Amino acid sequence: xxxxxxxxxxxxxxxxxxxxxxxxxxxxxxxxxxxxxxxxxxxxxxxxxxxxxxxxxxxxxxxxxxxxxxxxxxxxxxxxxxxxxxxxxxxxxxxxxxxxxxxxxxxxxxxxxxxxxxxxxxxxxxxxxxxxxxxxxxxxxxxxxxxxxxxxxxxxxxxxxxxxxxxxxxxxxxxxxxxxxxxxxxxxxxxxxxxxxxxxxxxxxxxxxxx
Amino acid sequence: xxxxxxxxxxxxxxxxxxxxxxxxxxxxxxxxxxxxxxxxxxxxxxxxxxxxxxxxxxxxxxxxxxxxxxxxxxxxxxxxxxxxxxxxxxxxxxxxxxxxxxxxxxxxxxxxxxxxxxxxxxxxxxxxxxxxxxxxxxxxxxxxxxxxxxxxxxxxxxxxxxxxxxxxxxxxxxxxxxxxxxxxxxxxxxxxxxxxxxxxxxxxxxxxxxx
Lengths: 211, 211
Hints:
The structure is a homodimer. Chain A is α+β, with helices and mostly antiparallel strands.
């Protein structure tokens, strides 16, 4: 499998999942501004929207969209490593993947992380996002993970919540979320993915500064 | 199964799917402003976020989030009626559910349909949403449905695109999308759901006008 990623972007959830499950993959870094891979290819030829993550399977097919990729990876992982095994718990996994993808990633952090978003869009996103964070905080206060065990939804949530530090979202106001995030970043798969992608992110910033 | 819906909201995708698959359900209308059901219950007791759709299964469990609900319904439908049967095509279904849910529903139409969203948020959403519409338009030009056959992702996409008429999104600029939408709204399940929910929507508007 090939993973097309940008450092610290939502594609880190796939890296965490691959590490967690012990699945080998080839990682291709994409510059989120130029939409080119480090080896000079036009990433829009792979995903016309230019969005990471995208994967290319061993049979050459391209799959995009985070929730779909995470479930695809879960299907290749040891049973239970990234997704529960019953139909009902799978529905719950999809519920959390959808919540993280729509309410947190797209609606809240999307505008906040976009330097081109106008102030009105950022303020609106911040205000609308509070209900989701409050619900999540209450939920996580009594739970270790989103489901009974670690799942790909935790890989996604940990990735998205990790962005808060560079936004006006103050996670310190949400003790349940803060404790969850601390637990998750102490997990070997998350710690390794974050450490590696932070290095790549800093290298990318340094390259951009010299252009 | 119980479906909690608001007229013409994204929950219409679930109604379309239920009609398409011939699955019986009890429909509870939720006022999206007051968050109360028509029979006077507080919908936030069912979904703390107050968002439709939510379903209650026959065993009493509540499931939220559109992509999860549509896949749950697909799992109860005749084989192939709402979702493909192979793992790979299921991944494609998840890809499209995620695209419609994040890029179109949440990022584009969310701010455009919200009377409380500031102009900056609406303009930003409209600008950011164009890439997704262009990709979709090119894709649909040569296809009848998102996948090889009708699926729950079409129910979701038809619902979301139906909102364009009350927003500045001009679908007439996208001939592939326009033709798709015309085909979909001629489909009995979609036509029935839309006709019924439009009536309910107008009744809701009339009730609000008399308060």
